[in-house]
UniProtKB/TrEMBL annotation:
GO terms for molecular function: hydrolase activity, acting on glycosyl bonds; peptidase activity. This is Protease I. Belongs to the peptidase C56 family. It comes from Caldalkalibacillus horti. Keywords: Glycosidase, Hydrolase, Protease.
Length: 170
């Protein structure tokens, strides 16, 4: 069954952490919607990939989506500074909808205040941030905890995509 996946993304995203999961999701028949503060805007990845924002955050409701992708890079930190993205992500955790966060992507989830007791991973520089948010940090290529799939770096993308697609198939 096809799922509708929200992608929270802005400038300075880690290119492969966006392009590879999105390609895998689309090839599996899922719909992907890029969300930022401004619809129609083009955002650039750290390595030059350019993507168009489909919808502004104030134009969408999390209830309209089946899953959430949070690519890494500097994008998650920039999104946190804009505000509202943590509240959007909170819905997915509360409703047990699939959440996929790689590298620095879990930074957005810190703002949900719902990480206590969850097993997670992420890029090593956010390890203490996740621990301080109550998560159980695991230094593993992919960690699946209920509806949450997390990975550390682009090197982990094969495992990240595999586990994300497994959750989407349920």
């Amino acid at each position: 069954m096809s799922k509708k996946i929200a992608v929270l993304v802005t400038d300075m995203f880690e290119d492969s952490e966006y392009t590879e999961p999105v390609k895998a999701y689309k090839e599996a028949g899922h719909e992907v919607v890029n969300i930022e503060s401004e619809a129609g805007k083009e955002v650039k990845g750290k390595n030059g990939e350019t993507i168009k924002i489909d919808k502004a955050l104030d134009q969408v409701k999390p209830e309209d989506f089946d899953a959430l992708l949070l690519p890494g890079g500097f994008s998650p930190d920039l999104l946190r500074g804009k505000g509202g993205f943590g509240d959007f992500a909170k819905h997915f955790i509360e409703k047990d909808k699939p959440v996929f966060a790689i590298c620095h992507g879990p930074q957005v989830l810190i703002d949900t205040h719902l990480l206590k007791g969850r097993n997670m991973t992420g890029f090593r520089s956010i390890k203490n941030d996740l621990i301080n948010a109550g998560a159980n940090f695991k230094d593993e290529e992919v960690v699946v905890c209920h509806n949450l799939v997390t990975s550390r770096t682009p090197d982990d993308l094969p495992a990240f995509n595999r586990e994300s697609l497994n959750l989407l198939a349920k």
